[in-house]
Amino acid sequence: MHKGEKRLPGDLGFGLILGCLTSVIIFVGLSWLLWQIPFPFKMGNYLDHLLGWLSMEINSLIPLIFKDRGHGYLFYLAQLRDPVQPWMLVSRFYVALAAAGLFGILVGYIGSRGQLTERHIAGRQLHEGQAALRFMARRAKILAEASEPGLRLHPSFNWQLSIDRETRHTLVWGSPGGGKTQILIPWIRAARARGDKLIIFDNKGDFTSWLPDPFILVAPWDSRSVVWDVAKDCRNQQDARELAARLIADGHDPLWHMSARQILTAVIIRLQREQPGVWTWASLYSKACGSQDELMQTVKLYMPEARHLFESPGKTTQSVLINLGSNLSMVGTLAAAWGAAEPKKMFSFSNWLMTESPKRRTIVLQGSGRYIELARAYLQSVLTLVSSRINSPQFPDSNKRRLWFFLDEFPQLGLIKDFSPLLEIGRSKGVRVVIGAQDTEQIKNLYGEHTADSWTSMVGTQIVVRVNPGSTANILAKEIIGTRTVDRVIVHKGKVEPPQREYPLVIEPAQLGEDLGPTKNGVRALVLGFNDVAMLDWPFSEIPKLRPSSVPASWLLNSNNSERPSSENQDPRGKIDEPQVKNLKPHLKLRLASSSELSKMAATGTTLNIAAEDLSDFSDTAKGGTHEPR
């Protein structure tokens, strides 16, 4: 159970005496029982035969002793005639002697071993090797009795998760190169083989390259990607607010980004009313880049609570519009990527969620280290949408639904609004979430310490691969895995002292970096959540490269990537007469900055967005004018 168990010095003499005594008792008892077998008929005079056989065997080894009795018994055996043969008698003693010898050696070895220096009293224990597999098999069998057998985390394991344990979600901790992907690959394969629905976050394109068809790829920068049918998924006013919040990032002063979000929300609501179910990213970009008068009319009609932004046009209004304009680049990029597409490439996440058995049951949401802001904007929008749909009453409880979220490198997604309810409520709706993260601090920085702590207590299973020394290793070893209670015995000056109660860690923080992670044949990891801790080896899974991880989309290969889709490219559904959006720029009425302000901006490297916030308190000397952003 524990490698390197320490013992006190043993007593060889005691073990020898105990082994011999055990052998004698077993030999006499077993030979007597064998003598009672009526073969070929009932035997008598057991003691005479025992003494005669012993004398014969001893005399054969030491001829000078037991000479008369030994020879006499040998002569007796030679005179036996059918149906009694000599072997029918002596074989009983030989069998008893062999068994007694084996048991005697075993008992003698155990007796000669010294006392363990520590005795487990309470708390978790660490199981390793075959003992860990046996422990997991026992625990999984017990848990499956209250539920149903679920997935096998690796084909080589002799145990399965229960269905109930699947819906209690999983956290996988590990540093880069620690082996998280090798933990997830057989899991994903098992879920797909069972016919479950999966949403996979592919941060580096690894899953895209090896995942067998069919699956749905979502990546604005990839030519193989579907096109997000945003009109099908953004249907009401609250959806519009959520989408605007994902597309316009938080700034230093909430006044500016909240006001810009109100304007963009009004634009989205206008599209929902005027072009229900058929508007595109291109139409959103076109409307959002309208003139100040057009935006004012849109806000007054569809977001009247924000009309004060335009009631007294002036410096504050201009700053809000600057903030909006500086954030529309992301919408423009999505318009270039997903502005127009064939109907067969359009994809609705809402429809996929509500369809019980879609043709393609796996969605891959691809990330990008090159297009970080674009990736984060669309990923947060998609996952916020999906989470809100699942948490809504329109997505009923079900014990038959099996929907997985495999979110490796989860912190790279940024803050996902309403993600906690997905863990809390999703269980009753058949949702299973597997989160992979490098350390606890990443999650705490995004969601707060309280939320991060609640997740670790809420999640049913945690898997730990190699974790580098630091705060995460300390938290895992000291707070999540914890301590155990033992009685420890020590020898002082040759005398065994009374046991002392101690509370050591189940596993030291340093072991999380030294004992776990990739080995010669697989990945070694800890499995938590089954009372004790199991250290298991995941054999390596073969990862074939079936396709490139990324194929650049045509809009990225255009020499003039600043161009946006225009109305010359008619909407494939033939329902929208899109306004011209090619080379469209926001028409904002800006003021001229003073020389001192320009000097300050040049010295600090202030961006347009930050400049709008910093210059919210306009000087009296500023002069208004209409200027196109350069």
UniProtKB/TrEMBL annotation:
<feature type="transmembrane region" description="Helical">
    <location>
        <begin position="12"/>
        <end position="34"/>
    </location>
</feature>
<dbReference type="Pfam" id="PF10412">
    <property type="entry name" value="TrwB_AAD_bind"/>
</dbReference>
<protein>
    <submittedName>
        <fullName>Type IV secretion system coupling TraD/TrwB family protein</fullName>
    </submittedName>
</protein>
<feature type="transmembrane region" description="Helical">
    <location>
        <begin position="87"/>
        <end position="110"/>
    </location>
</feature>
<dbReference type="InterPro" id="IPR027417">
    <property type="entry name" value="P-loop_NTPase"/>
</dbReference>
<keyword id="KW-0472">Membrane</keyword>
<feature type="compositionally biased region" description="Low complexity">
    <location>
        <begin position="558"/>
        <end position="569"/>
    </location>
</feature>
<feature type="compositionally biased region" description="Basic and acidic residues">
    <location>
        <begin position="570"/>
        <end position="580"/>
    </location>
</feature>
<feature type="domain" description="Type IV secretion system coupling protein TraD DNA-binding">
    <location>
        <begin position="161"/>
        <end position="489"/>
    </location>
</feature>
<keyword id="KW-1133">Transmembrane helix</keyword>
<keyword id="KW-0812">Transmembrane</keyword>
<dbReference type="GO" id="GO:0005886">
    <property type="term" value="C:plasma membrane"/>
</dbReference>
<feature type="region of interest" description="Disordered">
    <location>
        <begin position="557"/>
        <end position="582"/>
    </location>
</feature>
<keyword id="KW-1003">Cell membrane</keyword>
<feature type="transmembrane region" description="Helical">
    <location>
        <begin position="46"/>
        <end position="66"/>
    </location>
</feature>
<feature type="region of interest" description="Disordered">
    <location>
        <begin position="611"/>
        <end position="630"/>
    </location>
</feature>
<dbReference type="InterPro" id="IPR019476">
    <property type="entry name" value="T4SS_TraD_DNA-bd"/>
</dbReference>
<dbReference type="InterPro" id="IPR051539">
    <property type="entry name" value="T4SS-coupling_protein"/>
</dbReference>
